[in-house]
Amino acid sequence: MIIKPKKNILVHGFFVWYIGRIIKQNFTALNFNTPKIEKDKAIFLLANHFSWWDGFLIFYLNHVYFKKQFRVMIMENTAKKIWFMKFLGSFSVQPNSRSVLQSLQYAGELLDKPENLVLVFPQGKLHSSHIQKVGFQKGIQKIVNFSQKKFQYVFSVALTDYFEHKKPSLYFNFSQHSAQDFEDLNAIENSFNQHYQQALKKQIEKVV
Fold it and tell me: How wide is the angle at C-alpha 76 spanned by C-alphas 172 and 23, nearest 5°?
């Protein structure tokens, strides 16, 4: 059985405040560009996954910029272990199980509702931020196929640097694309990695 999101205004409101607070405590700055968002389309946000912070950071950015109903796919054991995740918009997936197709279908159906932002980490697992290419799991294509393909992609590449500060600064690089821009998983992955390389190049060129 999929663990699905539950609504609790008090818990959700507390974590909006709390996550914003710990971001300010742990990072020097949170920087991001502002992609053009189509209000009448859901967002399928694909992001690199290199830290414990990733989901919470995009949860916060959704609150301050995208302003959609936040949904994020997380591992079933994490959903069971961390009780409050379902109140922040998480739903579970268990690879190599009978329920995995249910989770992918649920994600696809979420993309048919314009009010949603669906966050998925296509790598499936945590990887170093120093990798040169982001590999995609096949489930991404299944999610797309389960939808009506009327959503908007947003690619997210998050990078960090310290420079002259004790705490790191965060840099989110977003790009937006139509669901009709890509024929298959390879096209999605290749486009994401082009964006990834551009973000790395831009970050390397920063000088303080």
Answer: 30
